Amino acid sequence: MNLPGRRLGLHSSTNLSSENLKSLINRSLELSRGADPRSFSGRNAILAFFESSTRTKVSFEVAATQLGMVAINFDITGSSLSKGESIKDTAETLASYDPSLFVVRSKESGLSQLFEDWTSVPTINAGDGEHEHPTQAILDLTTLVERFGSLDALEGLQMAIVGDVLHSRVARSLVQLASTCGIEVSFVGPESMMPKYIFPNVVRHSSFEVERYDVLYMLRIQRERFSEGESLEVNKYRSRFSLTKERASHIRRDQVVMHPGPVFPGMEIDAPLIDIDNSLIRRQTEVSIFARMAIIEAVLEGSIDG
Ligand code: CP
What we know:
- By secondary structure, the chain is an alpha/beta fold.
- It contains nine helices and nine strands.
- The protein has two domains: 18-133 and 287-300, Aspartate/ornithine carbamoyltransferase (Rossmann fold, 3-Layer(aba) Sandwich), CATH 3.40.50; 135-285, Aspartate/ornithine carbamoyltransferase (Rossmann fold).
- The protein has helices at residues 18-32, 55-66, 87-95, 111-119, 134-148, 169-180, 234-241, 245-248, 281-300, and strands spanning 44-49, 70-74, 101-106, 123-128, 158-162, 184-188, 203-205, 215-218, 256-258.
- It starts with 17 loop residues before the first helix and ends in a 6-residue tail after the last helix.
- Bound molecules: phosphoric acid mono(formamide)ester.
- Phosphoric acid mono(formamide)ester (CP) is lined by residues 53-57, 127, 136, 260-262.
- Phosphoric acid mono(formamide)ester binds next to helix 2.
């Protein structure tokens, strides 16, 4: 029997060791260069997305398929949740179809761990509320290693995570794993969008000076997570924190621009900048397949510690 809280899958960046992270990045890069994937032929992965997603859901589906698995999309809109079935009953019902893996996205923090506790099926957190999005952080760091040439080359890089850090599960996962790789992270944004949590060595800046950083990691304003009374003065925000054409004119050739997607063009970044030479935004999406293949391999082999 699985003990509550025992980890089989990947739920958080907090518990991922440096060795584990490095081996996931290296394996992702091997796969991106054409290494043979492991085969989990005949095994099922159930993707249970209780919140909308394009890139995470589809890339997990492609990744599982590339590993020989059958990827089953659980469609919540037509499910018995609408008849009042509880999420626990739903998880237990899905588990009875013998999946080797759950991939879970939710509005609530901690649902992937609950799925695993209820069912003993290894589960990957595909984004839970404002808590974490560990597979996004792993693919982001893999993209950076590919761009800068090696893991060692990340040591000492300056990264600005810009914008709505307060509501961002991506930021929460990325700051931890970027620090593990020796990257020095700054949060840049208005005071109202700074998180309540304190992360060691993270500096906060209320002005965005693009020249200071090697990596400009832009965040979407997550209005869907605003609480009552929270608001945004769009013009003021854009003039201070968006990556506008004017601001981008100060970017050096060796700086890179990243964004986890989905992008809201004209808000946090001007649309044409998504495709400038410095931008890794499209590459992040491509690399996500290989990173998620590496993560599934590690989970199914029992070698993950997150
Ligand atoms: N980055 C990310 O999680 O995108 P989706 O919401 O489209 O999955």
